[in-house]
Design a protein that fits this description.
Distance between the termini: 82 Å
Number of helices: 14
Shape: elongated
Strand content: 25-35%
Length: 820
């Protein structure tokens, strides 16, 4: 290929166009140089990629523009070389000229070739990295084999899978403006002039742009088991989001991740718009972008979902430090003074503002941590109030967590065995002494959509060999991938062999490179200061004989049962806590002795609460958090049965349960039809109902109630409904408990609605040999042949259900008065 400009000049009349005539530059740039992407609205809108090489700009017309999704292959037509000074051109090419239309500099920066670029051009494959304002990371240009008679030199522009790949981000749509003038291509075409540049065509001087602010490496916190004590410390909430450094300069805003990536476009316009209105010339603010759950707690999963959907309306920026203001660095000032300046700058503590001041609290660190854990927060950040801002990890910032959580490198996955789609689990690793070390599996936390999207990204990284040397639990079905994607994982503990226990996936961390991911270990206090930390409500209950098998056929242990409950806890928790319980225990497994327990006994873990029954003075059992479930598993509880009322309103039930119990041998299709009959008749009475599998032979139809009616009223309603149904269709239903009355029919069991009666809890395991569970489902699923025992612990149907939408998300909001 000849690096000349003859073809460029031949196509243009420089008396008519403002494009630079240019001559080949003598500057040598064998491995890279400048790059620019022009957005060019000519006969059709397209983007021109230009890479500097030895004095000219190699150029490709990318018809649909670059994409951050590695699965998108964008056609790029190789065109004539352009002069280097074309990299500064922005304006209108007049009608009658070659390429007539408006042009903006959509992105620019530098590029670096992976290998000899001239050899790559000759071979037809260029691998290179971009360091632009919008585009970063590795890219491929691959030449297509020409078709017969085709004159165009067609290539494909493809984003390489790395930390800068963003499959669900439309970079063209969210960042349409020029990086030079701040104008759109339409505004340039309409003759609008920027107030901040010297235009390429007129040379007229405009208002000077504010000085560019340099990214500051962030201060990082050191992990410790407990917050520090002493009056010199201030304590803040540890947010569950993305650490973001906001740069405000002359009304323009840039948002950088902790590693310096420009994510301004990813967060939409709301954050930038609010920050741009701050009363300052320049500022650098340190903070965190979050999305709050319905409980008002920051949720990284919700933030990930919003980023994937390019949704920015729920994002909130909590600002907690001010590093620079109006041209002056504040990093040398004490934290307390910086926070006062920040609060004054923001001028708001409003709970509904998009940009909020992150307040510090006067409570001691241990009290603050207890409050944070009780509220479901991630933990606490403690900062030395008189310390300057120091980049990197120091002892001036200390973090203490309610639960363990950190980033891991994804090295492989197990696909779903049932459908061939989605994920069964991820295999993760950490870097120790510059080597990858296996860290275990993560089998929960991804919905069906997240699992499918993640699998697509991982499939583009497949490799034939595991990236780690030693595997503790190798599996022939593992799909290995190159170790470049980073995921955040929440987990309960490390095993003695150094792998994760009860791990849940929270989302990808595109803001952190895999090279930086190491095992996070809490710093120990000096011996003279050590003290036994108080056990928080969120700490795990240790299992003894955790490998004891409870279900011999599927070989499921106590540890397996606990991990299953961990995977369903976010859905199970509101349905089981603070209710009197009846427990089926099988300390030696389902094939050993079993017995029910309703009342307290010596030696129970304190996380199992007790209450005195106001009528018979018996002690009822209940749990309030996940530790309670762990304590039940430790006792060998294989079925959890609940009252239909809570302990603080024990005389007024909040649900009615109908157990559809079929005669032996009755076809399951008849039971499904019966459930739909019950649903319809309840609707006729004005009640919405929900359904779950029993884990045995039938289904449970549940009506949420407002807890106003008393037990006798609720039981009377349930009995009358059951008898009315049986009388209307006597050949199909019975309301009589006796076995002989059930022959060939379905028993509408209403007896679970009396005071002291219980029904198996949603998501509870069952005592049958297969380890079935009682699983809430959507009514529509009955039409697809679901059986009452379709869901088992660690089964594919169970995993799929947990990746999907929660079928009972509004249980308590659905409640109606019984007399409705």
């Amino acid at each position: 290929m000849v690096d000349g400009l003859a073809q460029y000049r031949q196509k243009r009349n420089f008396n008519n166009t403002g494009e630079p005539e240019g001559t080949p530059n003598k500057r040598k740039s064998p491995d890279g140089g400048l790059f620019v992407i022009h957005m060019h609205d000519a006969r059709r809108l397209h983007y021109d990629l230009r890479l500097e090489h030895n004095g000219v700009l190699w150029s490709w017309a990318v018809t649909r523009g670059p994409s951050l999704d590695p699965s998108d292959k964008r056609l790029a037509v190789h065109v004539e070389n352009h002069p280097l000074d074309y990299g500064e051109f922005e304006g209108v090419i007049p009608e009658g000229s070659y390429g007539a239309g408006s042009v903006i500099i959509w992105d620019n920066g530098t590029w670096l070739s992976d290998g000899n670029p001239a050899a790559g051009m000759k071979k037809g494959h260029l691998r290179f990295s971009l360091f632009g304002k919008k585009l970063k990371g590795a890219w491929d240009l691959v030449r297509l084999k020409p078709k017969e008679g085709e004159k165009r030199d067609n290539w494909l522009l493809i984003k390489v899978e790395d930390n800068f790949a963003q499959p669900n981000v439309d970079i063209l749509g969210i960042a349409p403006k020029s990086v030079k003038s701040g104008l759109t291509v339409a505004e340039i075409g309409a003759g609008k002039k920027s107030k901040t540049i010297v235009t390429a065509l007129t040379g007229s001087k405009k208002k000077k742009r504010h000085a560019r602010l340099d990214f500051i490496a962030p201060a990082l916190a050191t992990l410790k088991s407990n917050p520090p004590s002493g009056n010199e410390w201030v304590h803040e909430v540890k947010f569950d989001g993305y650490r973001i450094q906001a740069h405000v300069s002359g009304g323009e805003v840039k948002l950088y991740t902790r590693s310096g990536l420009d994510w301004t476009g990813r967060f939409g316009e709301a954050l930038s718009s609010h920050l741009s209105k701050l009363k300052c010339d320049t500022a650098i603010i340190d903070g965190e972008v979050v999305v709050l759950s319905a409980k008002g707690v920051a949720s990284f999963s919700l933030l990930q979902a919003d980023l994937s959907a390019s949704r920015g309306d729920r994002m909130i920026y909590y600002a907690f430090d001010l590093l620079h203001l109006n041209g002056v660095s504040l990093m040398g000032e004490a934290l307390e003074k910086r926070k006062l300046r920040l609060e004054k700058l923001l001028k708001t503590k409003s709970s509904d503002s998009v940009v909020r001041f992150s307040e510090d609290f006067t409570q001691t660190g241990d009290v603050m941590l207890a409050h944070a854990c009780r509220m479901g927060l991630e933990g606490v950040i403690s900062k030395r109030g008189n310390a300057p801002y120091r980049s990197g990890r120091t002892a001036d910032w200390i973090k203490a967590k309610c639960i363990q959580r950190q980033e891991f490198i994804i090295i492989g996955y197990l696909p779903s065995a049932a459908t061939g789609r989605g994920l069964r689990s991820l295999l993760v690793a950490l870097r120790e002494n510059k080597k990858l070390v296996y860290a275990g599996r993560v089998g929960t936390g991804f919905s069906a959509k997240v699992g499918d999207d993640l699998k697509k990204r991982l499939d583009r990284l497949k490799t034939s060999r595991p990236p780690v040397d030693k595997l503790l639990d190798a599996d022939k079905d593992v799909i290995w991938v190159r170790p470049v994607l980073v995921g955040e994982v929440e987990f309960r503990a490390w095993t003695d062999t150094g792998v994760l226990r009860q791990a849940s996936f929270k989302g990808l961390r595109d803001d952190k490179p895999a090279e930086d991911v190491i095992r996070e270990v809490a710093m120990k206090e000096p011996a003279k200061h050590t003290r036994k930390p108080a056990k928080t409500r969120d700490s795990a209950v240790p299992l003894t004989h955790a490998d004891k098998v409870l279900w011999p056929k599927p070989k499921l242990s106590k540890q397996d049962l606990l991990e299953y409950y961990r995977s369903v806890w976010s859905r199970m928790e509101p349905l089981v806590i603070n209710r009197p319980l009846s427990l089926l225990r099988a300390p030696d497994g389902v094939e050993g002795q079993r017995f029910f327990q309703k009342h307290a006994s010596p030696g129970m873990h304190p996380s199992i609460g007790t209450m005195r029954d106001p009528i018979d003075n018996q002690e009822h059992l209940y749990i309030t958090n996940f530790d309670g479930v762990a304590a039940l598993v430790q006792l060998g509880v294989i079925e959890i049965h609940i009252w239909g009322a809570k302990i603080d309103a024990i005389e007024t039930p909040d649900q009615v349960v109908f157990d559809l119990d079929p005669d032996e041998g009755l076809d399951t299709a008849v039971v499904r039809s019966a459930a739909l009959d019950v649903k319809k008749h309840l609707e006729d009475l004005g009640f919405e109902s929900l359904i779950k599998t029993s884990g045995g032979k039938g289904f449970h139809v549940v009506i949420p109630l407002k807890p106003k009616a008393r037990w006798e009223e609720v039981k009377t309603f349930a009995r009358d409904f059951a008898y009315a149904l049986a009388q209307s269709t006597p050949d199909k239903y019975t309301a009589t408990l006796a076995k002989k009355a059930r022959k060939g029919r379905i028993f509408i069991d209403y007896l679970r609605n009396g005071r002291g009666s219980t029904t198996v809890a949603a998501y509870s395991s069952r005592a049958n040999p297969e380890a079935a569970v009682s699983m809430p489902i959507d009514w529509s699923q009955l039409k697809h042949g679901i059986d009452p025992n379709s869901f088992v612990i660690n089964g594919d149907a169970t995993r799929k259900a947990l990746r999907g939408k929660d079928p009972w998300p509004e249980f308590f909001k659905m409640g109606k008065h019984l007399r409705a």
